[in-house]
Amino acid sequence: MKNKLEELRAKNGFTQQDLADRLEVSRQTIISLEQGRYNPSITLAFRVARLFKLQIEEIFIYEEGEING
After folding, report:
1. What angle do CA 68, 43, 52 make, to 5 degrees?
2. d(C-alpha 41, C-alpha 11), whole Å
3. What is the value of pTM for the model shown?
4. d(C-alpha 36, C-alpha 21), whole Å
5. For residue 67, what pLDDT is reported?
6. Measured torsion, CA atoms of residues 46, 39, 25, 32, in degrees rounded to the nearest 10
7. Backbone phi and psi for residue 52, each to the nearest 5 degrees, phi listed first
8. One pLDDT digit (tens) per residue for the chain, 69 residues
9. Where are the beta strands (DSSP E) in 1-69?
10. d(CA 22, CA 67)
11. What distance in Å separates the CA atoms of residue 12 and residue 29, rounded to the nearest whole number?
């Protein structure tokens, strides 16, 4: 799943560690999310959206035919 996390993080002046601390996840989780290697849980997706005051769909881009796994 593609996302705009890195762009939003940079725009808001957060380091990966800053963002990880705010979301209560590891820095490795942020790295994996930004690289598209990890799809967030719905809870984490909501926390990200609330932090940036956006809708989930404005951050995480689902493309038809994607398979989670």
Report:
1. 105
2. 23
3. 0.87
4. 20
5. 63
6. -140
7. -90, 0
8. 899 999 999 999 999 999 999 999 999 999 999 999 999 999 999 999 999 999 999 999 988 776 654
9. 2-3, 60-61
10. 29
11. 18
